[in-house]
């Protein structure tokens, strides 16, 4: 049963390196189009980039786009970075 439930995935890992705005990364400055505002939390404060995946840099997975950015942001204003327990 376990083998039947396995889905395609990409294992993400990182190394310490300088990156450009367009590369996959953890933290740093995100790529944002000129006409897009920086994401804000519920208090109106700019959010921090947790991770950015450039889809052209990762292996192709069926039903996933092959181009564009997948970005994850978190609240930077709280000790728990927006986690609510």
UniProtKB/TrEMBL annotation:
InterPro entries: DUF1963 (IPR015315), YwqG-like_sf (IPR035948). Transmembrane segments: none annotated. It comes from the Bacteria. This is DUF1963 domain-containing protein.
